[in-house]
Amino acid sequence: MRKKIVAGNWKMNKTYDEGLALVSEITNMVQDEVNNEAIVIVCPPFPFLAGIGKALTGNEKVKLGAQNCHQNESGAYTGEVSAVMLKSVGVEYVILGHSERRQYFLEDNQLLEAKVKAVLKQGLKPIFCVGETLDQREQDLTFEIIETQLKEGLFHLSNEEFENVVIAYEPVWAIGTGKTATSAQAQEVHAFIREQIARHYDAQAALDTTILYGGSANPSNAQELFSQPDVDGGLIGGASLKSRDFTDIVKSF
Ligand SMILES: O=C[C@H](O)COP(=O)(O)O
């Protein structure tokens, strides 16, 4: 049975003290109020990971994620952080292929393929993002784009490796815009992703893979989105920066 997940991607926001306070509020609220089985993940910026990792030690419900990593284990890569380092501070999940990384840092599917491998080698779980731009959607290229992102970035993995992958569908036009995909639009693409998994792996792999929706998800639309049969949770940006909103999203299953 696939897992339900709500992951908060803080992006480049908060100071360290603010981050610690946010995690403390989230863990308290989740403990007091959440009675579903969802896994909650917080993905703070790199400098906060060790401290927040410590604060989360032993927490069964709230896990630590990172927003990116380098594809190599170590070496002369000034400013970069490896999956080995992430593991050493308690990170369990790593977001890869976010559209902001693809757009601003020119990360392509070939590079992402290497990053996915690096993350899996350390026993961490990639949250692999796919999604189309508005232009691509208007040109009816959504499925083609997503198929290519999956094929080139992920589907080189063995069946065994693929078991540890989480996928996030994030339509680029919905990220940070307040313009959420309708639940029907999200469901359509999630079902397509599941079909692709069945085609490249098998029906069981398709059934077992967690597929998250991301893009202006908030406490008012989460329930409708999460009620779709192929939507297994969310990758949340803006609303993950407020403990109340984030916890309410976690409660939306
Ligand atoms: O990683 C999260 C997504 O980019 C969604 O961001 P958003 O919820 O602010 O639209």
TrEMBL record:
<dbReference type="GO" id="GO:0004807">
    <property type="term" value="F:triose-phosphate isomerase activity"/>
</dbReference>
<dbReference type="InterPro" id="IPR000652">
    <property type="entry name" value="Triosephosphate_isomerase"/>
</dbReference>
<feature type="active site" description="Proton acceptor">
    <location>
        <position position="170"/>
    </location>
</feature>
<feature type="binding site">
    <location>
        <position position="216"/>
    </location>
    <ligand>
        <name>substrate</name>
    </ligand>
</feature>
<keyword id="KW-0963">Cytoplasm</keyword>
<comment type="subunit">
    <text>Homodimer.</text>
</comment>
<feature type="active site" description="Electrophile">
    <location>
        <position position="98"/>
    </location>
</feature>
<comment type="function">
    <text>Involved in the gluconeogenesis. Catalyzes stereospecifically the conversion of dihydroxyacetone phosphate (DHAP) to D-glyceraldehyde-3-phosphate (G3P).</text>
</comment>
<dbReference type="GO" id="GO:0006096">
    <property type="term" value="P:glycolytic process"/>
</dbReference>
<dbReference type="GO" id="GO:0019563">
    <property type="term" value="P:glycerol catabolic process"/>
</dbReference>
<dbReference type="InterPro" id="IPR022896">
    <property type="entry name" value="TrioseP_Isoase_bac/euk"/>
</dbReference>
<dbReference type="GO" id="GO:0006094">
    <property type="term" value="P:gluconeogenesis"/>
</dbReference>
<comment type="pathway">
    <text>Carbohydrate biosynthesis; gluconeogenesis.</text>
</comment>
<feature type="binding site">
    <location>
        <begin position="9"/>
        <end position="11"/>
    </location>
    <ligand>
        <name>substrate</name>
    </ligand>
</feature>
<feature type="binding site">
    <location>
        <begin position="237"/>
        <end position="238"/>
    </location>
    <ligand>
        <name>substrate</name>
    </ligand>
</feature>
<keyword id="KW-0324">Glycolysis</keyword>
<dbReference type="GO" id="GO:0005829">
    <property type="term" value="C:cytosol"/>
</dbReference>
<comment type="pathway">
    <text>Carbohydrate degradation; glycolysis; D-glyceraldehyde 3-phosphate from glycerone phosphate: step 1/1.</text>
</comment>
<feature type="binding site">
    <location>
        <position position="176"/>
    </location>
    <ligand>
        <name>substrate</name>
    </ligand>
</feature>
<protein>
    <recommendedName>
        <fullName>Triosephosphate isomerase</fullName>
        <ecNumber>5.3.1.1</ecNumber>
    </recommendedName>
</protein>
<dbReference type="Pfam" id="PF00121">
    <property type="entry name" value="TIM"/>
</dbReference>
<keyword id="KW-0312">Gluconeogenesis</keyword>
<dbReference type="InterPro" id="IPR020861">
    <property type="entry name" value="Triosephosphate_isomerase_AS"/>
</dbReference>
<dbReference type="InterPro" id="IPR035990">
    <property type="entry name" value="TIM_sf"/>
</dbReference>
<comment type="similarity">
    <text>Belongs to the triosephosphate isomerase family.</text>
</comment>
<dbReference type="InterPro" id="IPR013785">
    <property type="entry name" value="Aldolase_TIM"/>
</dbReference>
<dbReference type="GO" id="GO:0046166">
    <property type="term" value="P:glyceraldehyde-3-phosphate biosynthetic process"/>
</dbReference>
<keyword id="KW-0413">Isomerase</keyword>
